[in-house]
Protein backbone atom coordinates (compact mmCIF):
# COMPACT_ATOMS: atom_id res chain seq x y z
CA UNK A 1 0.00 0.00 0.00
CA UNK A 2 2.76 2.41 1.05
CA UNK A 3 4.75 1.45 -2.06
CA UNK A 4 1.77 2.24 -4.30
CA UNK A 5 1.25 5.55 -2.48
CA UNK A 6 4.92 6.52 -2.82
CA UNK A 7 4.93 5.47 -6.49
CA UNK A 8 1.89 7.71 -7.10
CA UNK A 9 3.62 10.67 -5.45
CA UNK A 10 6.77 9.99 -7.47
CA UNK A 11 4.81 9.87 -10.76
CA UNK A 12 3.00 13.14 -9.90
CA UNK A 13 6.31 14.89 -9.16
CA UNK A 14 7.82 13.60 -12.43
CA UNK A 15 4.76 14.76 -14.39
CA UNK A 16 4.84 18.23 -12.81
CA UNK A 17 8.58 18.61 -13.34
CA UNK A 18 8.24 17.42 -16.91
CA UNK A 19 5.39 19.84 -17.61
CA UNK A 20 7.34 22.80 -16.17
CA UNK A 21 10.43 21.74 -18.04
CA UNK A 22 8.47 21.25 -21.26
CA UNK A 23 6.69 24.59 -21.09
CA UNK A 24 9.93 26.48 -20.48
CA UNK A 25 11.81 24.51 -23.11
CA UNK A 26 12.60 26.70 -26.15
CA UNK A 27 11.20 24.15 -28.58
CA UNK A 28 7.77 24.81 -27.06
CA UNK A 29 8.04 28.24 -28.71
CA UNK A 30 9.76 26.87 -31.74
CA UNK A 31 9.76 29.01 -34.91
CA UNK A 32 8.07 26.48 -37.23
CA UNK A 33 9.32 24.34 -40.13
CA UNK A 34 11.62 25.76 -42.78
CA UNK A 35 9.70 26.90 -45.87
CA UNK A 36 12.07 24.74 -47.96
CA UNK A 37 10.46 21.57 -46.59
CA UNK A 38 7.04 22.25 -48.14
CA UNK A 39 5.42 23.71 -51.23
CA UNK A 40 3.50 26.98 -51.20
CA UNK A 41 2.38 29.44 -53.89
CA UNK A 42 5.06 31.48 -55.62
CA UNK A 43 3.03 34.66 -55.03
CA UNK A 44 3.75 34.43 -51.28
CA UNK A 45 7.51 34.09 -51.72
CA UNK A 46 9.19 36.34 -49.12
CA UNK A 47 5.91 36.99 -47.29
CA UNK A 48 6.24 34.03 -44.92
CA UNK A 49 8.64 33.15 -42.16
CA UNK A 50 7.90 29.46 -41.63
CA UNK A 51 5.35 26.69 -41.96
CA UNK A 52 3.83 26.41 -38.50
CA UNK A 53 1.31 23.60 -38.98
CA UNK A 54 1.41 21.63 -42.23
CA UNK A 55 -1.93 20.91 -43.89
CA UNK A 56 -1.70 17.15 -43.29
CA UNK A 57 -1.26 17.66 -39.55
CA UNK A 58 -4.28 19.99 -39.46
CA UNK A 59 -6.34 17.30 -41.15
CA UNK A 60 -5.21 14.52 -38.82
CA UNK A 61 -5.92 16.63 -35.74
CA UNK A 62 -9.33 17.64 -37.12
CA UNK A 63 -10.21 13.98 -37.65
CA UNK A 64 -9.52 13.29 -33.98
CA UNK A 65 -11.53 16.34 -32.86
CA UNK A 66 -14.43 15.03 -34.95
CA UNK A 67 -14.23 11.75 -33.04
CA UNK A 68 -14.19 13.54 -29.67
CA UNK A 69 -17.21 15.63 -30.70
CA UNK A 70 -18.99 12.52 -31.93
CA UNK A 71 -18.27 10.70 -28.63
CA UNK A 72 -19.71 13.60 -26.61
CA UNK A 73 -22.57 14.76 -28.81
CA UNK A 74 -23.42 11.74 -30.98
CA UNK A 75 -27.18 11.14 -31.34
CA UNK A 76 -27.97 14.75 -30.38
CA UNK A 77 -29.40 17.05 -33.01
CA UNK A 78 -26.88 19.87 -33.42
CA UNK A 79 -26.50 23.21 -35.12
CA UNK A 80 -22.98 23.92 -36.30
CA UNK A 81 -22.34 27.64 -36.29
CA UNK A 82 -19.32 28.37 -38.46
CA UNK A 83 -17.56 31.64 -37.68
CA UNK A 84 -16.64 33.31 -40.99
CA UNK A 85 -14.50 34.02 -42.69
CA UNK A 86 -11.52 32.37 -41.03
CA UNK A 87 -13.42 29.29 -39.87
CA UNK A 88 -14.66 28.11 -43.26
CA UNK A 89 -11.88 25.60 -43.98
CA UNK A 90 -11.77 24.14 -40.48
CA UNK A 91 -15.55 23.93 -40.33
CA UNK A 92 -15.85 22.28 -43.77
CA UNK A 93 -13.18 19.69 -42.92
CA UNK A 94 -14.61 19.05 -39.43
CA UNK A 95 -18.09 18.53 -40.89
CA UNK A 96 -16.66 16.11 -43.48
CA UNK A 97 -14.96 14.05 -40.75
CA UNK A 98 -18.11 14.01 -38.62
CA UNK A 99 -20.12 12.89 -41.68
CA UNK A 100 -17.63 10.09 -42.36
CA UNK A 101 -17.92 8.93 -38.73
CA UNK A 102 -21.71 9.06 -38.96
CA UNK A 103 -21.62 6.87 -42.08
CA UNK A 104 -19.30 4.34 -40.48
CA UNK A 105 -20.65 3.89 -36.99
CA UNK A 106 -23.92 3.22 -35.22
CA UNK A 107 -23.88 6.71 -33.72
CA UNK A 108 -24.97 9.52 -35.96
CA UNK A 109 -25.00 13.25 -35.56
CA UNK A 110 -27.80 15.03 -37.40
CA UNK A 111 -26.55 18.55 -38.13
CA UNK A 112 -27.66 21.82 -39.51
CA UNK A 113 -24.77 24.02 -40.65
CA UNK A 114 -25.11 27.76 -40.37
CA UNK A 115 -22.81 30.76 -40.50
CA UNK A 116 -22.05 33.96 -38.64
CA UNK A 117 -19.60 36.53 -39.89
CA UNK A 118 -17.37 38.43 -37.48
CA UNK A 119 -14.69 41.02 -37.96
CA UNK A 120 -12.34 42.14 -35.21
CA UNK A 121 -8.86 42.41 -36.78
CA UNK A 122 -7.13 45.16 -38.76
CA UNK A 123 -3.57 44.36 -39.89
CA UNK A 124 -2.32 42.07 -37.09
CA UNK A 125 -4.11 43.91 -34.28
CA UNK A 126 -7.43 43.17 -32.62
CA UNK A 127 -9.80 46.13 -32.89
CA UNK A 128 -11.28 45.19 -29.51
CA UNK A 129 -14.87 45.46 -30.73
CA UNK A 130 -16.89 42.46 -31.83
CA UNK A 131 -18.44 43.34 -35.12
CA UNK A 132 -21.08 40.95 -36.45
CA UNK A 133 -21.26 41.59 -40.17
CA UNK A 134 -24.77 41.48 -41.67
CA UNK A 135 -26.48 40.78 -38.32
CA UNK A 136 -28.61 37.69 -38.76
CA UNK A 137 -31.60 36.49 -36.87
CA UNK A 138 -30.35 33.54 -34.84
CA UNK A 139 -33.71 32.80 -33.23
CA UNK A 140 -33.63 29.30 -34.79
CA UNK A 141 -31.01 28.48 -32.10
CA UNK A 142 -33.64 28.47 -29.38
CA UNK A 143 -33.63 25.12 -27.56
CA UNK A 144 -30.90 23.70 -29.86
CA UNK A 145 -27.49 22.14 -29.13
CA UNK A 146 -25.03 24.52 -30.74
CA UNK A 147 -21.41 23.89 -31.73
CA UNK A 148 -19.58 27.11 -32.57
CA UNK A 149 -16.66 26.40 -34.92
CA UNK A 150 -13.93 29.04 -34.91
CA UNK A 151 -10.45 29.00 -36.47
CA UNK A 152 -8.57 30.95 -33.81
CA UNK A 153 -9.07 32.14 -30.26
CA UNK A 154 -6.48 34.48 -28.77
CA UNK A 155 -7.54 36.62 -25.82
CA UNK A 156 -10.91 34.89 -25.92
CA UNK A 157 -12.69 38.26 -25.73
CA UNK A 158 -14.31 37.83 -29.16
CA UNK A 159 -15.45 34.34 -28.19
CA UNK A 160 -16.82 35.61 -24.88
CA UNK A 161 -18.82 38.32 -26.67
CA UNK A 162 -20.03 35.84 -29.29
CA UNK A 163 -21.13 33.38 -26.59
CA UNK A 164 -23.09 36.15 -24.90
CA UNK A 165 -24.70 37.01 -28.22
CA UNK A 166 -25.61 33.37 -28.97
CA UNK A 167 -26.84 32.66 -25.44
CA UNK A 168 -29.33 35.51 -25.75
CA UNK A 169 -31.23 33.25 -28.20
CA UNK A 170 -31.59 30.63 -25.42
CA UNK A 171 -30.02 27.53 -26.98
CA UNK A 172 -30.16 24.30 -24.95
CA UNK A 173 -26.36 23.91 -24.94
CA UNK A 174 -23.41 25.71 -26.50
CA UNK A 175 -19.97 24.15 -27.12
CA UNK A 176 -17.03 25.67 -28.93
CA UNK A 177 -14.45 24.05 -31.20
CA UNK A 178 -11.36 26.17 -31.92
CA UNK A 179 -8.62 24.95 -34.24
CA UNK A 180 -6.01 27.25 -32.70
CA UNK A 181 -5.71 28.80 -29.28
CA UNK A 182 -2.98 31.38 -28.69
CA UNK A 183 -1.09 31.46 -25.45
CA UNK A 184 -1.54 35.12 -24.56
CA UNK A 185 -1.06 36.67 -21.14
CA UNK A 186 -4.32 38.61 -21.14
CA UNK A 187 -6.43 35.49 -21.59
CA UNK A 188 -9.50 36.76 -19.79
CA UNK A 189 -12.07 35.45 -22.22
CA UNK A 190 -13.59 32.07 -23.01
CA UNK A 191 -11.61 28.95 -23.85
CA UNK A 192 -12.97 26.43 -26.39
CA UNK A 193 -14.26 23.00 -25.30
CA UNK A 194 -12.43 21.37 -28.23
CA UNK A 195 -8.95 22.71 -29.09
CA UNK A 196 -6.88 21.68 -32.10
CA UNK A 197 -3.53 23.24 -31.22
CA UNK A 198 -2.21 25.67 -28.66
CA UNK A 199 0.29 28.04 -30.27
CA UNK A 200 2.48 30.91 -29.06
CA UNK A 201 1.41 34.49 -29.69
CA UNK A 202 2.48 34.76 -33.34
CA UNK A 203 0.41 36.07 -36.21
CA UNK A 204 -0.40 33.08 -38.39
CA UNK A 205 -2.05 32.90 -41.79
CA UNK A 206 -3.31 30.27 -44.20
CA UNK A 207 -5.96 27.55 -44.15
CA UNK A 208 -8.52 30.41 -44.42
CA UNK A 209 -6.82 32.64 -41.83
CA UNK A 210 -6.04 36.05 -43.30
CA UNK A 211 -3.95 39.15 -42.92
CA UNK A 212 -6.12 41.93 -44.41
CA UNK A 213 -7.93 39.32 -46.56
CA UNK A 214 -4.69 37.85 -47.99
CA UNK A 215 -3.29 34.33 -47.46
CA UNK A 216 -6.65 32.52 -47.14
CA UNK A 217 -5.58 30.49 -50.19
CA UNK A 218 -2.50 29.14 -48.41
CA UNK A 219 -2.58 25.38 -47.81
CA UNK A 220 -0.61 25.29 -44.54
CA UNK A 221 -0.82 27.47 -41.45
CA UNK A 222 2.27 29.70 -41.66
CA UNK A 223 3.89 32.53 -39.73
CA UNK A 224 3.79 35.77 -41.74
CA UNK A 225 7.09 37.64 -42.26
CA UNK A 226 7.71 41.36 -41.64
CA UNK A 227 7.88 41.79 -45.43
CA UNK A 228 4.44 40.16 -45.76
CA UNK A 229 2.99 42.44 -43.07
CA UNK A 230 4.40 45.57 -44.74
CA UNK A 231 3.37 44.50 -48.24
CA UNK A 232 -0.30 43.98 -47.33
CA UNK A 233 -0.69 46.65 -44.64
CA UNK A 234 -3.69 48.97 -44.97
N1 LIG B 1 -4.05 35.17 -37.77
C1 LIG B 1 -5.19 35.49 -38.42
N2 LIG B 1 -6.26 35.97 -37.82
C2 LIG B 1 -6.22 36.11 -36.48
C3 LIG B 1 -5.07 35.78 -35.74
C4 LIG B 1 -3.93 35.29 -36.42
O1 LIG B 1 -2.87 34.97 -35.83
N3 LIG B 1 -5.35 36.03 -34.44
C5 LIG B 1 -6.63 36.49 -34.41
N4 LIG B 1 -7.15 36.56 -35.63
MG1 LIG C 1 -9.15 37.95 -40.11
UniProtKB/TrEMBL annotation:
CDD domains: PRTases_typeI. It comes from the Eukaryota. Residues 59-211 form the Phosphoribosyltransferase domain. The keyword ATP-binding does not apply. Pathway: Purine metabolism; IMP biosynthesis via salvage pathway; IMP from hypoxanthine: step 1/1. It is an enzyme of class 2 (transferase). GO terms for molecular function: hypoxanthine phosphoribosyltransferase activity; magnesium ion binding; nucleotide binding. Its cofactor is Mg(2+). It catalyses: IMP + diphosphate = hypoxanthine + 5-phospho-alpha-D-ribose 1-diphosphate. One of its GO terms (biological process) is guanine salvage. It is found in: Cytoplasm. Keywords: Cytoplasm, Glycosyltransferase, Magnesium, Metal-binding, Nucleotide-binding, Purine salvage, Transferase. SUPFAM superfamilies: PRTase-like (SSF53271). Its EC number is 2.4.2.8. The keyword Zinc-finger does not apply. Pfam families: Pribosyltran. One of its GO terms (cellular component) is cytosol. Belongs to the purine/pyrimidine phosphoribosyltransferase family. NCBIfam families: HGPRTase (TIGR01203). This is Hypoxanthine phosphoribosyltransferase.
Amino acid sequence: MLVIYLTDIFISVVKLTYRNFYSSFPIYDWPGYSLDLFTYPEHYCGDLQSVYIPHGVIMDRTERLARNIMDDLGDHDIVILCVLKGGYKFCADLVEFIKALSRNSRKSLPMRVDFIRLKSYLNDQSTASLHIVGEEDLSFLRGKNVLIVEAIVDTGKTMKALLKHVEAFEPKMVKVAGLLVKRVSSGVGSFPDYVGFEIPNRFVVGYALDYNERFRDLHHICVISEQGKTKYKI
